[in-house]
C-alpha cells in the first residue's frame, strides 16, 4: 500500500530521527553488556593463569559498566554544537561497533 | 586518560549522593545481572566490601563471569575430516542406561495412548516434519544409502500427540517412548532447470543445468508405547523432577 | 592450560585498518569463524582491540575446525531398521 510520506513525495529527503527508539535502546544495552562480558571473561581467564594485561586494567579503571552508566550516557553523547550539548549516540559513525561510554564531566 | 579517571570518580560520587540509589541496594543491583546460583562466596564478599567502602568505583572490582573453563566431552578425537561420531550418523542407537519415566508421565500416558490417530513432529537433520500414519513425504534432499522399500525409523521427535493430548520434549522426546516407521517409496526428481550464465563483453553464454532428486516416503505407523510395554522393555519409574516432560491437554 | 575460544560475530567492514589487521592476526577471516588461542596477555590484548566484534569463552581443550563443525552438525534423526534384502530374506525363510 502506498503511504504518502514526505520522503516518497519530495524525492531527496532523508531524515535521521533525533533520538533512539526503545528497541534500539534495548539493543544498545545488550551490546554494552556483551562487551562487559567479553572483558570480564578475558580478565577472569588471565587472573586464573596469573597474568594481566594493561588493556584490561585500563578498561576497568576508565570505563563504567553497563549497569553503572546513566541513561544519558548510554544513549547520547556530548556535542559542543548542540544547544543542549548532547546528541543521540546513533549520530556517531559505526556506533554499534565502537565503545563510547564516557563524556566530559559536567555535560 | 587522567581526565577520564577523574570524571569516573566524579560521576560515581554523583550517583552515590543521589537519593534513589543507596549503598544498601548495591548487592541487589549486582543480583540482577548475575544468576544467584553462579555466584560463589568470594564474589559475595567482593560485592559486600564494595558496598562497605563506596569510594571505590564498582567497575574497579572485576566481577568474574561464569567462565569456568569447560571441558569438552569427546570420546573419540576425530583424526580425518570424514570422521563423524556414531551419534551423528544414521545408525541404530545402543542404550547404556534404562529409560527413565516419571510417575506423573506414567499416570498420564494411558490417555495419550488411548486416543488413536497419533502425530509426531520428527526432526530430520534438525528440520521438523509433522507426520501421521499414512502420510506421504517428500524430503527436500536425496537420502543417501537407502533403497526403495527400506524401512526407516525416525528417532528424533520434538512433540508427540493425539487430538487432545501432546507430549512435548525438551528439546527431544526419548526415542524409546514411541515408534515411527517409514517406508521409502522411491525417488522423485524436479523438472530440469536451465539457467543462462552470461559474462560481460562476451557472446558466449554458459548453461547451468540442475535437476535435483528427492526421496519420497510413506509413514507406516506412528505408535506411542503404553506404560506396560515400557515396563516390559525395562523402563525405570522415577520421582517427578521440575523439568520432567508432561503431557499437556488441549485447552 | 586453557584457551580462549573466540568467535567473530560482527564484521569489521568500515572500521579502521588496525581493527581488520588484528582480526587477521587472530585468524578470524569471516563472520561466525571460531579460533582458539592459549590464554596469554598478548592474546588478551588482541581480544581487547576487537572486543565489540567477538564473543569470548574460556575453554580447557583446543578444538580443531572439524570438531567445531561437528558441534553444530545436527543429529540425522533416522536410521535404517530393515532393508529390502533383509525383508525378502525373512519372507523366504517362512
TrEMBL record, chain A:
One GO molecular-function entry: structural constituent of ribosome
One GO term of the biological process aspect: mitochondrial translation
Keyword Ribosomal protein included in the entry's annotation: yes
Compartments it resides in: Mitochondrion
InterPro entries linked: Ribosomal_mL60 (IPR016340)
Top-level taxon of origin: Eukaryota
Keyword terms of this UniProt record: Mitochondrion, Ribonucleoprotein, Ribosomal protein
One Pfam family recorded for the sequence: L31
Primary site of residence: mitochondrion
Gene Ontology CC, one term: mitochondrial large ribosomal subunit
Subunit structure: Component of the mitochondrial large ribosomal subunit.
The name this protein goes by in its record: Large ribosomal subunit protein mL60
Organism, scientific name: Penicillium frequentans
Automatic annotation (TrEMBL), chain B:
Protein family according to the UniProt entry: Belongs to the bacterial ribosomal protein bL21 family.
InterPro entries: bL21-like, bL21-like_sf
Biological source species: Penicillium frequentans
PANTHER family (alphabetical): 50S RIBOSOMAL PROTEIN L21 (PTHR21349), LARGE RIBOSOMAL SUBUNIT PROTEIN BL21M (PTHR21349:SF0)
Biased composition (Low complexity): 42-51
Protein name in UniProt: Large ribosomal subunit protein bL21m
Region (Disordered): 37-70
Amino acid composition bias (Polar residues), ranges on this chain: 52-70
GO cellular component, one term: mitochondrial large ribosomal subunit
One of the record's GO molecular function terms: structural constituent of ribosome
Automatic annotation (TrEMBL), chain C:
Highest taxon above the source species: Eukaryota
Signal peptide residues on this chain, from the entry's feature table: none
Subcellular location: Mitochondrion
Gene3D superfamilies: Ribosomal protein L30, ferredoxin-like fold domain (3.30.1390.20)
Keyword terms of this UniProt record: Mitochondrion, Ribonucleoprotein, Ribosomal protein
Pfam families: Ribosomal_L30
Residues of the Large ribosomal subunit protein uL30-like ferredoxin-like fold domain: 4-54
Ribonucleoprotein is among the record's keywords: yes
Cellular component annotations (GO), alphabetically ordered: large ribosomal subunit; mitochondrion
One GO term of the biological process aspect: translation
Role of this protein: Component of the mitochondrial ribosome (mitoribosome), a dedicated translation machinery responsible for the synthesis of mitochondrial genome-encoded proteins, including at least some of the essential transmembrane subunits of the mitochondrial respiratory chain. The mitoribosomes are attached to the mitochondrial inner membrane and translation products are cotranslationally integrated into the membrane.
NCBIfam families: rpmD_bact (TIGR01308)
Family: Belongs to the universal ribosomal protein uL30 family.
Protein name as catalogued: Large ribosomal subunit protein uL30m
Species assigned in the record: Penicillium frequentans
Amino acid at each position: 500500500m502506498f503511504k504518502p510520506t514526505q520522503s516518497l513525495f519530495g524525492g531527496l529527503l532523508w531524515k535521521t530521527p533525533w533520538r533512539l527508539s526503545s528497541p534500539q535502546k534495548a539493543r544498545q544495552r545488550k551490546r554494552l553488556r556483551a562487551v562487559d562480558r567479553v572483558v570480564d571473561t578475558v580478565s577472569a581467564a588471565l587472573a586464573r593463569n596469573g597474568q594481566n594485561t594493561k588493556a584490561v586494567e585500563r578498561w576497568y579503571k576508565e570505563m563504567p559498566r553497563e549497569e553503572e552508566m546513566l541513561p544519558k550516557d548510554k544513549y547520547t553523547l556530548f556535542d559542543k554544537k548542540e544547544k543542549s550539548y548532547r546528541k543521540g549516540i546513533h549520530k556517531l559513525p559505526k556506533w554499534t561497533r565502537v565503545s563510547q561510554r564516557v563524556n566530559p564531566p559536567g555535560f | 586518560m587522567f581526565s577520564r579517571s577523574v570524571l569516573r570518580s566524579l560521576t560515581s560520587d554523583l550517583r552515590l549522593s543521589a537519593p534513589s540509589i543507596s549503598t544498601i541496594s548495591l548487592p541487589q543491583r549486582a543480583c540482577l545481572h548475575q544468576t544467584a546460583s553462579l555466584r560463589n562466596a568470594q564474589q559475595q564478599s567482593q560485592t559486600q566490601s564494595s558496598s562497605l567502602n563506596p569510594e571505590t568505583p564498582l567497575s574497579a572490582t572485576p566481577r568474574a563471569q561464569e567462565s569456568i573453563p569447560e571441558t569438552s566431552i569427546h570420546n573419540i578425537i576425530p583424526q580425518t575430516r570424514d570422521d563423524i561420531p556414531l551419534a551423528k550418523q544414521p545408525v541404530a542407537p545402543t542404550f547404556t542406561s534404562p529409560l527413565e519415566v516419571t510417575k506423573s508421565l506414567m499416570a498420564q500416558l494411558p490417555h495419550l495412548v488411548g486416543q488413536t490417530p497419533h502425530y509426531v513432529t520428527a526432526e530430520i537433520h534438525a528440520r521438523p516434519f509433522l507426520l501421521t500414519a499414512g502420510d506421504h513425504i517428500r524430503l527436500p534432499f536425496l537420502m543417501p544409502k537407502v533403497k526403495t522399500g527400506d524401512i526407516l525409523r525416525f528417532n528424533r521427535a520434538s512433540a508427540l500427540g493425539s487430538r487432545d493430548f501432546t507430549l512435548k520434549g525438551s528439546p527431544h522426546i526419548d526415542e524409546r517412548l514411541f515408534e515411527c516407521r517409514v517406508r521409502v517409496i522411491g525417488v522423485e526428481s524436479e523438472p530440469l532447470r536451465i539457467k543462462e550464465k552470461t559474462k560481460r563483453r562476451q557472446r558466449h553464454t554458459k548453461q547451468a543445468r540442475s535437476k535435483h532428486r528427492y526421496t519420497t516416503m510413506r509413514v507406516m505407523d506412528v505408535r506411542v508405547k503404553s506404560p506396560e510395554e515400557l515396563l516390559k522393555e525395562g523402563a525405570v519409574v522415577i520421582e517427578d523432577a521440575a523439568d520432567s516432560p508432561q503431557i499437556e491437554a488441549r485447552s | 592450560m586453557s584457551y580462549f575460544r573466540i568467535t567473530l560475530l560482527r564484521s569489521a567492514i568500515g572500521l579502521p585498518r588496525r581493527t581488520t589487521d588484528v582480526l587477521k592476526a587472530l585468524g578470524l577471516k569471516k563472520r561466525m569463524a571460531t579460533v582458539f588461542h592459549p590464554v596469554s596477555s598478548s592474546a588478551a590484548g588482541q581480544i581487547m582491540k576487537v572486543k565489540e566484534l567477538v564473543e569470548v569463552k574460556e575453554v580447557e581443550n583446543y578444538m580443531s575446525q572439524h570438531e567445531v563443525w561437528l558441534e553444530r552438525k545436527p543429529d540425522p534423526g533416522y536410521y535404517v531398521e530393515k532393508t529390502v534384502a533383509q525383508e525378502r530374506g525373512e519372507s523366504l525363510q517362512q
